[in-house]
C-alpha cells in the first residue's frame, strides 16, 4: 500500500496521502454538522437542562484558543474560516441554552407563585371540611385507596414501556448510524471533488519553515486548547452521573464528535509519522484523540442511564 501512487496533474498522490485527505475531509464534515443535533434536541425538548453549560463554555474557550493559534501561525484562510465558524456555532448553542434556562426559570417561578397563592386561599376551607365531615379514619382510608390506585396505575404504566420503548430506541440508533454514514460519504465525496478540481493537492511532509517563534506560540496555544477540550467534557460526565440520566442530550452530537476526533487524528498520522512532524502536531493529537476516551465514557452513560426512567429501571 505505501508504494501505491496515483498521478493527478503531474503530482504524485500516495495511498497514505489520499487517506490523510479523505480522513481530514470527513473530520471537516463532522465538525460542520456537529452542533446541529444538539440544537434540534434542545428545540424539541424546549429545554437545555440536559447539557452542562460549563461544558459548552470551556469548549468555547478551547475554540477561541484554537482560532488565535491559527491566526498567529498564519494558517491557510480555510482553516481560519473554519475556526471562526466553530466559535460562531458555539455562541449559537450557548445562547440557545441561556435562553431556554432563562425562560424555563421564569415559568417555574410563576408556577410556584400561583401554587403558593392557591394553597393559601384553599387551606382554611380544606381544614374545616376535614374536621367536620366524615367518620374517623375515613380520610386515611380514602388516601390509602387513592395511593393504591396510583401505585397500580404506575405499575401498569411501567410494565408496558419495557415492550414498547425498545422499538423507538432501536430506530434512533439506526437513524444515528445512517447519519454517520452520510457524513462519511459527504466528506469522502468532498475530498474527491477537491482533488479532481485541484483545490486540494498533496503537501510535502518536510518542514522547511524557519519561523520557530511562531511555531512555539502556536504550540503553546495548541496545548492550551487541548487542555480545554480535555477538560470540557468532565462537567458533563459529572452532571450525567449526578442526575443518573442523559435526558436532553443528543447521542448523535457525541457520535459526530467521536468521528471528527478519530478522523482528525488519523488524517495527521497518515500524512506523516516523522518525529518532527509528530511533535509539531502533538497538542492537536492530544486534544482530538484524548477526548475520544471521554466521549466513550458518555456513550457508556447513555447505555446505563438512558433517560431518567430507563436509568431507574437498570439500577
Automatic annotation (TrEMBL):
GO molecular-function terms, A-Z: basic amino acid transmembrane transporter activity
Lineage top rank: taxon: Eukaryota
Any single biological process term in GO: vacuolar transmembrane transport
Keyword annotations: Membrane, Transmembrane, Transmembrane helix
Pfam families: PQ-loop
Reaction(s) the record says it catalyses: L-histidine(out) + L-arginine(in) = L-histidine(in) + L-arginine(out)
Family of this protein: Belongs to the laat-1 family.
Name used for this protein in its record: PQ-loop-domain-containing protein
Species, as recorded: Polyplosphaeria fusca
Lineage: Eukaryota, Fungi, Dikarya, Ascomycota, Pezizomycotina
Amino acid at each position: 500500500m505505501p508504494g501505491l501512487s496515483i498521478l493527478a496533474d503531474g503530482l504524485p498522490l500516495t495511498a497514505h496521502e489520499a487517506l490523510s485527505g479523505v480522513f481530514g475531509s470527513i473530520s471537516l464534515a463532522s465538525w460542520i454538522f456537529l452542533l446541529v443535533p444538539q440544537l434540534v434536541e434542545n428545540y424539541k425538548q424546549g429545554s437545555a437542562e440536559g447539557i452542562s453549560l460549563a461544558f459548552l463554555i470551556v469548549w468555547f474557550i478551547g475554540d477561541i484558543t484554537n482560532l488565535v493559534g491559527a491566526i498567529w501561525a498564519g494558517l491557510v484562510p480555510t482553516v481560519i474560516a473554519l475556526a471562526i465558524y466553530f466559535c460562531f456555532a458555539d455562541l449559537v448553542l450557548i445562547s440557545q441554552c441561556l435562553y431556554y434556562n432563562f425562560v424555563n426559570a421564569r415559568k417555574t417561578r410563576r408556577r410556584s407563585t400561583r401554587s403558593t397563592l392557591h394553597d393559601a386561599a384553599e387551606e382554611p376551607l380544606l381544614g374545616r371540611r376535614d374536621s367536620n365531615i366524615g367518620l374517623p379514619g375515613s380520610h386515611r382510608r380514602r388516601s390509602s385507596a387513592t395511593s393504591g390506585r396510583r401505585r397500580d396505575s404506575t405499575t401498569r404504566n411501567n410494565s408496558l414501556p419495557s415492550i414498547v420503548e425498545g422499538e423507538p430506541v432501536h430506530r434512533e440508533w439506526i437513524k444515528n448510524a445512517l447519519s454517520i454514514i452520510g457524513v462519511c460519504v459527504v466528506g469522502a465525496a468532498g475530498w474527491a471533488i477537491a482533488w479532481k478540481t485541484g483545490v486540494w493537492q498533496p503537501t510535502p511532509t518536510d518542514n522547511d519553515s524557519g519561523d520557530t517563534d511562531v511555531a512555539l506560540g502556536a504550540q503553546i496555544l495548541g496545548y492550551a486548547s487541548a487542555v480545554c477540550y480535555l477538560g470540557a467534557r468532565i462537567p458533563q460526565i459529572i452532571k450525567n452521573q449526578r442526575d443518573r440520566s442523559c435526558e436532553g442530550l443528543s447521542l448523535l452530537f457525541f457520535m459526530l464528535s467521536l468521528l471528527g476526533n478519530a478522523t482528525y487524528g488519523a488524517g495527521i498520522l497518515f500524512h506523516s509519522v516523522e518525529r518532527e512532524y509528530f511533535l509539531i502536531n502533538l497538542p492537536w493529537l492530544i486534544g482530538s484523540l484524548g477526548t475520544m476516551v471521554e466521549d466513550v465514557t458518555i456513550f457508556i452513560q447513555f447505555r446505563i442511564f438512558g433517560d431518567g426512567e430507563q436509568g431507574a429501571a437498570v439500577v
